Amino acid sequence: MDNILNFLRLEESDHLLLFWLKEILVAVVIFTLFWGLSQVVRYILTSWVPRLTAFTRTGLDDRIIQRVTPPASLLVVFAGLYFAVRSLPLPEKAHVVLSGAVYILNIIVVTVIVERVIAELLEWYGAKLAERHGAGVDRQIIPPLEKIVTIFLVGIALMVTLRHFDYDIVSVLTALGVGSLAIGMAAKDTLANMISGFTLMVDRPFRIGDRIQLTSGQWGDVNDIGLRTTKIKTVDNTLLVIPNSELCNTTLINLAYPDTRAKGRINVGVGYESDVEKVKGIMIQTALDVPEVLPNPAPEAFFVSFGDSALGMSLFFWVEDYTRLFAVTDRINEQIINRFREHGITIPYPTRTVFLEKEN
Predict the structure, then answer these.
(1) Mean pLDDT, the chain, as a whole number?
(2) Where's the Mechanosensitive ion channel MscS C-terminal domain (predicted)?
(3) In 10 A of CB 156, how many CB atoms?
(4) Phi and psi for 102 in degrees, rounded to 5?
(5) Residue 13 burial (C-beta neighbours within 10 Å; 0-12, 13-18, 19+)
């Protein structure tokens, strides 16, 4: 009897061993098929797809394919590992743990693929911004965007993972919403400045190096555009720090846009006995004799007003660089006063005649 029981136990163990060998073999076959499929995917992405993207005028698609090929093939391998684990007749808890771990790996790989695609798109967009608005713009805009995208993708991956394990993501979202509201109320000014800084970087009303003038009369060169403040270096070599929210809600003048040319104006009064046409000619020729004054648009002189003691004249001229406007104005003023003296043209000053009546 004992021999019969031992024989039955041995036969049962052999059947169990054969059963597990068969199940493991099926899992290995599934994983092998997916591994082969990953090699096919890699071959297609490295050999055939570049032939198609070669017909496009941009290299963006080539860079995207090059960056997503390794994680895409790895994703197929992890997918095969997931189905291989699911095919094994393991206990329920073992299934949950193993398949859950492989599922998390798949989510991570998918997140990496999406992040790499978006990173290439942002890099391409940054290069376009640099071509349009000058070098350095991409280094200001793209890094904050990349951080925001990364946080967004990680949040989505976390919610998908929690949803897979039947966690209540509504309560998580509610807690995050309440926390975000509390943080937003506590730091609303800082957030307003950060959002305004991002708006300034995207809208580009001015660039680093541009000379701007505020409604308050202050003006200077933009030294830095940050997420919270903008720094302006004034002409007297002081640093003006302005919150971005104020710059977004005020009117300002960009002296460097659409180009660096600037228009200067000189007002001068001449005596009533002066020949107006002669005065105009002298002023225009004086401006043209200064090398930094542009011949096109040509300088212009106008008779603009009748003053109490002088005829009001105005000279308009253009310079190539707005930073040289004051220096050029100084040189023209010096030449004008010398030319007026040479031609006998007076620059009168206000006079007042007082009549005294003698009482009888």
Answers:
(1) 79
(2) 266-347
(3) 14
(4) -65, -35
(5) exposed
* pLDDT higher than 80, residue 23: no
Give φ, ψ of 358 to 5 degrees.
-90, 125
Please check whether residue 159 lies inside any domain of the structure: yes
DSSP 3-state of 267: strand
Question: Do 114 and 10 lie in a common domain?
Answer: yes
Query: Does 120 share its domain with 88?
Result: yes
pTM beyond 0.85: the answer is no
* 119 contacts: CB under 8 Å, gap ≥ 6: 67, 146, 149
Residues recorded for the chain: 360
- Burial bucket for residue 212 (CB in 10 Å: 0-12, 13-18, 19+): buried
**What is the rounded distance in angstroms from the CA atom of residue 94 to the CA atom of residue 98?**
6
Cα–Cα distance for residue pair 30/115, rounded to 1 Å = 29
- List the one residue out of 105, 138, 108 whose CA is nearest residue 123: 138
**DSSP label at 353?**
-
Helices 2-43, 60-87: axis angle to 10 degrees equals 170
Quick one: pLDDT band at residue 331, thresholds 50, 70, 90? very high
Which residue, among 222, 228, 263, has the nearest Cα to 134 in the 3D structure?
222
DSSP state of 290: S
Name the pLDDT band for 284 (thresholds 50, 70, 90): very high
pLDDT tens profile 105-132: 888 888 888 888 888 888 887 777 666 6
| Burial (CB count within 10 angstroms: exposed 0-12, middle 13-18, buried 19+), residue 230 | buried
Contacts of 321 (CB under 8 A, 6+ apart): 260, 261, 262
With tokens 């004034």, the residue in question is: 234
Yes or no: say if 210 and 221 are a contact pair by the CB < 8 Å rule: yes
Q: How many domains does the chain have?
A: 3
Do 15 and 133 share a structural domain? yes
Paired residues of 233 in beta bridges: 221, 239
CB-based contact 209:221 (threshold 8 Å): yes
| Tens digits of residue pLDDT in 285-313 | 999 999 999 999 899 999 999 988 899 99
